[in-house]
Write a structure and sequence with these properties.
Blueprint (H helix, E strand, L loop, with lengths): L1 E6 L5 E6 L5 E4 L6 E2 L10 E6 L2 E6 L6 E3 L2 E3 L1 E3 L5 E4 L2 E7 L25 H9 L8 E3 L5 E3 L9 H5 L13 H8 L18 H16 L12 H42 L2 H14 L6 H14 L9 H15 L5 H26 L2 H18 L3 H7 L2 H31 L2 H14 L7 H17 L1 E3 L18 E6 L15 E6 L2 E6 L5 E6 L9 E2 L5 E6 L4 E6 L5 E6 L9 E3 L2 E5 L4 E6 L5 E6 L9 E2 L5 E5 L4 E7 L2 E8 L12 E3 L2 E6 L6 E8 L6 E9 L9 E2 L2 E5 L5 E6 L8 E7 L10 E6 L2 E5 L3 E7 L4 E9 L9 E3 L2 E7 L6 E6 L6 E7 L8 E5 L2 E7 L5 E4 L1 H6 L1 E6 L14 E5 L2 E5 L6 E10 L2 E7 L9 E3 L2 E5 L5 E4 L27 E2 L4 E5 L4 E8 L2 E9 L9 E2 L3 E6 L3 E6 L5 E6 ...
Parallel strand pairs: 3-4, 15-50
Antiparallel strand pairs: 1-2, 1-11, 3-5, 5-6, 6-9, 7-8, 7-10, 10-11, 12-13, 14-26, 15-46, 15-75, 16-17, 17-18, 19-20, 20-21, 21-22, 23-24, 24-25, 25-26, 27-28, 28-29, 29-30, 31-32, 32-33, 33-34, 35-36, 36-37, 37-38, 39-40, 40-41, 41-42, 43-44, 44-45, 45-46, 47-48, 48-49, 51-52, 52-53, 53-54, ...
Length: 1190
């Protein structure tokens, strides 16, 4: 047999007896013999069984091993003292012998470790048997059965069992000799009584000894005294008993009364009678301050005090908060407080919620502070669970609502105060600004009574602030003097064709605007009749005057309003406006109304142009005003905030309506349909809306009735036809609305909608021919038909992708005129479309870019200004056209005819052949064919590699810097290389591309790449070779330029470097004012190097710095050297003449233009040609002091 001692992780110990016949299975399963507790213990960890001569432990298949003495073993024999460890449980084998064979008893006396304690050997023997668990002593027999050993005192012979062994004697108080005999060896002392002999029992001898002592010490008294009388003592005892009984009865009564008072207080607390509960607790504590329940009573009394303020009405939440805080501070040290702190914490959350609700309803910041203070107090009361309890309550949400309500209240209060102050200061803008700030945060205040009242006062302030001036000013009839001559403009148009138009179309004029020039175009042929410079800032094309052969346009260069003849473009009158304008004027009867951004409305007489009156509104204006049906009132939308209603007779402001629109959010003037006024507004970054108003019968008041969302931005006034209003947006959405009666709450009803591509397609202009037909000028230009019965919108005709719309659609009799920005040549494409068939009657492109810039060509003894048309034919710009100005009218190729692409080419003369070099990236060039077939004057020649930069005529062929990093020289007629290509050394770490080459002479050139590498290449014996190579310490910013002796390079560190052309050694280096993006070619042996900030550096042909100047604006194009002066044209439209030798200023001429390139020489004396726009140039007479010599 064996015994197991088991220690679990909690420190508990149990014992288990092992038998040879019964294996012990151990694990966490309740069915195991030895049940182990702890994390990670499997249901069956293993078993212990007897095998041959010893016990053996074996691991279960799930466990695979057990730890025996710290070693992993699948099976191992056990010896006494071995330890089995299983997840914190420790099992020891204490012994494995049979307990039924006890060891032999030891003879002789045995002393205890303690002097006066002697344990009999039999007791020790019995204790050794008690090795089973504390609850049961289980011992197995040979048959596997178990029996229980009875306890020692349950046995009949317990006295003999516990009796000491012979030789041990009880030591008395005064038996020193016996004590010494028992403690030390020697003969035992003789007992005084025979009962105390060795054969007597231990307890018998002890009793006899005590009897002897009592008899010896007893001395009987012969005399009887009073105090020692039994009767007296009995009386005293009776009296003491009575007193004690009274005390007991009194204490019982006191405790009974105290218990009744305490229970009554608790019952009142439970029933919600908090005042009686508090009173009862106070009486209990006053009468029983030291009662065991006093601490509990103090805690419950404080709790009742808190509860009495936590009522459904919630009118005393502040008192509840103070009571809760007092309870915590006063009784938190009581042990009984632990039982009630959970309820107190819950009450604090309710108090916080009540205070938060009160703060939200009353917008009281003090209540909010009290509500916020409950959170830290709740945390102190509850402790660690406070955060979890708080998150499950509604207090955080209610605090957020309270803060928002207070912030909302304070914002409204501050806004109203600001509005009052603005009204006091007489500033309507201040009122509007304060109102906008409030509504932007809280839209629900839009109809707030106090807000509306102040807005009415502000509108009245604006109305009273409108001033009318009757000062008159006559118009001018003479045009302003122009520094430049008459313009000459390139026009591309369709060939003359027979157009079927109405009889009045021949007399109608289509107006357009292209690159700062206004045009009048014949309505039947598309041939421009006139052109007039109006400046790049002009915002609209000429507008025809109804029932009058004239038009109105604004010259943005001088801010003049011009009235021109529609057929000739001649000036009728002009009036200076004093500032730029955004929208065209309104013509109403015999008056013209022009709104100015400064807030003025100018009123002119239509026929004479005289200024009749000026209305100062005090608000910036941008869009054209609209008149009511009778023409008695004008509706003028300010650039922001409000709409003004003006009366014409007498002139004044009748009313002001606040719209609250943002700055510039109204893109066009309102549309009026009967008494409905539709104000379009782009109020978000991607979408807009319509705001519909109804005018009263006399037109002096208006009322908002409906708001309609628009998907996308509106670009023009909504078109109307009968009872249909159309909505169009830049996202391709078209929607038709039917208009109801004026009294309807929602008079506009959508009857059909066509969704677009929902992309930003640019400007959209719409024109409604009738209630079922709509034309669009946009990226989705065409005709759209409405079927109101089916509720559908269908595309009748599509005009294709024509580019961004440039102007509103103009009716030309039965035709419609469209204006688009041509995506090919960037000119303005004007076309007339037959709305019934969808065919294009004619097309004209105004101000396209030149295929090649006009250049002077020597033809024998005559010098001509030449260019080419789209078919590649040479076109001469005659002297008469150059002197008188006019239109260079070129035909567009017909369908199927040859046409060059609409690119900008560079014309090169290569070995007697003209070559057109396309832009970078092209894989071909155009070569002039001396024998054209089918009008093909140019033919395409493929290149060995796409162009990496601009080619050059050099080495008897065409130099091609290829995108494959090779340099080719090819025959332009065949495209084949005439010399061996140059292949640079490939550097994987440097990724670079070629810049335009700089020709030094007929046999050498300079090539640079943008990484800062310079190479001098030479042509020798039919081979292109590298002669010199140099690396710069900065990247090259612009293609280099060279003369036979010097190379000029601009680097990215804003430096200009002069290098020797022979070996690329440095000559000089100078810093520039700004970055340099282009290096003009040498002019008369000198380099003029402009930077982007207006600085110009002059360098001699030998690399010496000559001078530097600051023109304060970037130079456009190449400078022109002529008669000892160099001319620079800046981006501001100023022509500067400087001395060639010193840079001294010789002339400064303001041209009031935005030039497209530098000045050109003219064949006339004292004249320059100035490119003023795409496809347009004008002549300039030079100042007298720098006139050219004949």
């Amino acid at each position: 047999m064996g015994t197991l001692e088991v220690h679990d992780p909690q420190g508990r110990v149990q014992f288990l007896v092992l038998t040879k016949e019964h294996p012990v299975v151990f694990g966490s399963s309740p069915s195991c013999d030895l049940v182990l507790s702890g994390e990670g213990i499997r249901p069956v960890e293993g078993r212990i069984r007897w095998k041959k001569t010893r016990f053996r432990v074996e691991a279960s298949p799930d466990a695979e091993f057990v730890l025996v003495n710290g070693n992993r073993m699948s099976a191992a024999g056990l010896s006494p003292g071995d330890e089995i460890s299983i997840e914190g449980c420790r099992i020891f084998l204490m012994r494995d012998e049979d307990p039924e064979d006890p060891p032999p008893k030891k003879s002789g006396p045995k002393l205890s470790d303690r002097p006066h304690l002697h344990t009999p050997p039999r007791i020790q023997e019995h204790a050794e048997v008690k090795l089973a668990p504390a609850t049961k002593n289980v011992v197995g027999n040979a048959k596997g059965q178990t029996h229980h050993d009875p306890a020692t005192f349950d046995q009949d012979d317990w006295l003999e069992i516990i009796e000491p062994e012979p030789g041990l004697d009880l030591v008395g108080d005064d038996e020193d000799e016996a004590h010494a005999t028992s403690m030390f060896p020697g003969p035992p002392a003789k007992p005084k009584n025979k009962l105390a002999s060795k054969s007597s029992g231990f307890f018998k001898r002890y009793i006899l000894r005590k009897k002897e002592l009592s008899e010896e010490n007893y001395a009987p008294h012969r005399e009887e005294r009073l105090l020692s009388s039994p009767l007296v003592w009995g009386l005293f005892a009776t009296l003491a008993a009575l007193v004690l009984l009274g005390i007991v009865i009194y204490s019982v009564l006191v405790r009974t009364l105290a218990s009744r008072l305490y229970n009554q207080a608790v019952e009142s607390l439970d029933n919600g009678d908090y005042l009686n509960s508090i009173r009862s607790f106070d009486e209990f504590l006053a009468a029983n301050p030291s009662d065991a329940r006093a601490g509990k009573a103090r805690v419950l009394r404080a709790l009742a005090n808190v509860r009495q303020y936590v009522t459904p009405g919630g009118s005393e939440w502040s008192n509840a908060l103070e009571a809760g805080r007092s309870m915590f501070e006063d009784v938190q040290s009581e042990p009984e407080f632990r039982d009630e702190k959970a309820e107190l914490g819950e009450l604090m959350l309710r108090i916080g919620e009540g205070l938060a609700d009160r703060a939200r309803l009353s917008a009281d910041r003090k209540s909010l502070g009290e509500a916020e203070s409950t959170i830290p107090l709740h945390a102190r009361i509850v402790g660690e669970p406070a955060a979890a309890l708080l998150s499950r309550s509604s207090l955080p949400a209610k605090l957020g609502e309270a803060r928002a309500a207070i912030r909302k209240f304070e914002t409204r209060r501050d806004s109203l105060s600001a509005m009052d102050q603005a009204l006091k200061d007489g500033s309507a803008k201040g009122v509007y600004s304060a109102r906008d700030g409030l509504i932007q945060q809280y839209g629900e205040f839009a109809n707030d009574r106090e807000l509306v009242r102040r807005m009415v006062d502000a509108n009245e302030l604006v109305r009273r602030g409108v001033k009318v001036s009757s000062e008159r000013r006559p118009a001018e009839s003479r045009p302003r003097p122009e520094p430049l001559g008459a313009p000459t403009t390139l026009i591309l148009r369709t060939p003359n064709i027979v157009v079927t138009t109405s009889a009045d179309a021949e007399s109608l004029t289509v107006f357009s605007l292209a690159d700062g020039f206004a045009y009048g175009i014949a309505g039947d042929t598309g041939i421009p009749r006139w052109q007039r410079p109006v400046g790049l800032a002009a915002s609209f094309a000429p507008r025809p005057v109804p029932n009058d052969p004239s038009c109105l346009v604004v010259d943005a260069r001088y801010h003049d309003l011009l009235k021109l003849h529609s057929a000739t473009g001649d000036l009728i009158w002009r009036q200076n406006l004093g500032e730029a304008v955004d929208d065209p004027p309104l013509v109403l009867g015999n008056q013209v109304f022009q709104a100015l951004p400064s807030g003025k409305l100018l009123i002119f007489e239509l026929n004479s142009g005289e200024l009749q009156a000026t209305v100062e509104t005090g608000f910036p204006l941008s869009v054209t005003p609209v008149a009511d049906e009778s023409g008695r009132h004008l509706y003028l939308v300010a650039r922001r905030d409000c709409l003004l209603i003006l009366t014409r007779d007498p002139l004044g402001c009748a009313a002001v309506e606040y719209l609250g629109h943002a700055e510039g959010s109204v893109p066009a003037s309102p549309s009026r349909l009967g008494r409905f006024l539709i104000v379009p507004e782009n109020h978000t970054l991607s979408d807009g809306r319509w705001r519909v108003f109804v005018l009263d019968t006399d037109g002096a008041r208006m009322k908002a009735v409906q708001e309609i969302p628009v998907a996308g931005w509106t670009w023009s006034s909504p078109p109307t036809a009968n009872a249909i209003v159309w909505s169009t947006s830049d996202r391709g959405v078209i929607e038709a609305f039917a208009v109801g009666d004026y009294g309807s709450p929602r008079p506009f009803r959508s009857i059909s909608r066509l969704d677009g591509d929902f992309k930003n397609n640019g400007p959209v202009y719409a024109f409604a021919r009738n209630e079922r037909e709509l034309w669009l000028a946009s990226a989705h230009a065409g005709r759209y038909d409405l079927d109101p019965v089916r509720g559908t919108i269908t595309v009748k005709y599509g005009l294709g992708q024509l580019g961004p719309a440039a102007a509103p659609i103009q009716p030309i009799g039965k035709l419609l005129g469209f204006s688009f920005q041509d995506p090919g040549n960037l000119g303005t494409s004007v076309r007339a479309v037959d709305p019934d068939s969808g065919t294009i009657a004619w097309r004209s492109i105004l101000g396209p870019r030149w295929l090649i810039p006009p250049h002077w060509v020597r033809d024998g003894s005559v010098t001509k200004l030449m260019t080419i048309d789209l078919q590649g034919r040479t076109v001469e710009i005659t002297r008469k056209l150059l002197e008188d100005g006019g239109l260079l009218d070129l035909e567009l190729p017909k369908k199927g005819e040859f046409s060059l692409p609409l690119d900008r080419f560079k014309l090169l003369e290569v070995a007697g052949h003209q070559v057109l070099a396309p832009p970078i990236g092209s894989q071909y060039v155009w070569v002039q064919d001396p024998n054209p077939v089918n009008s093909m004057h140019w033919r395409k020649v493929d290149l060995p590699s796409p162009l990496a930069t601009v080619p050059a005529a050099w080495g008897g062929g065409l130099l091609i810097p290829g995108a494959d990093t090779r340099i080719y020289v090819i025959d332009p007629q065949t495209g084949r290389s005439i010399v061996e290509p140059f292949v640079p050394v490939f550097d994987r770490e440097k990724s670079s591309s070629w810049l335009a080459p700089a020709v030094v002479d007929a046999q050498s050139l300079i090539l640079a790449d943008n990484s800062g590498q310079l190479r001098r290449l030479t042509l020798r014996e039919g081979r292109l070779g590298l002669e010199v190579e140099r690396s710069l310490d900065a990247k090259v910013a612009a293609p280099p330029t060279a003369s036979p002796g010097t190379v000029i390079v601009a680097t990215a560190d804003q430096k200009v470097r002069a290098l020797a052309a022979r070996d690329l050694s440095p000559i000089g280096s100078w810093s520039s004012k700004g970055p340099i993006t282009t290096l003009p070619e040498t002019k008369e042996g000198k380099f003029f190097i402009p930077d982007d900030l207006g600085g110009v550096l002059a360098i001699a042909s030998d690399g010496r710095r000559l001078w530097s100047i600051d023109l304060e604006s970037r130079v456009v194009g190449d400078p022109l050297v002529m008669d000892g002066a160099v001319w620079f044209l800046t981006l501001e439209g100023i022509l500067h003449g400087r001395s060639l030798e010193t840079g001294e200023s010789l002339a400064r001429v303001g041209l009031n233009i935005l030039p497209t390139s530098g000045p050109m020489p003219s064949i006339r004396e004292n004249e320059l040609i100035i490119p003023v726009a795409r496809g347009t140039f004008q002549t300039l007479r030079l100042p007298k002091k720098v006139e050219r010599k004949p």
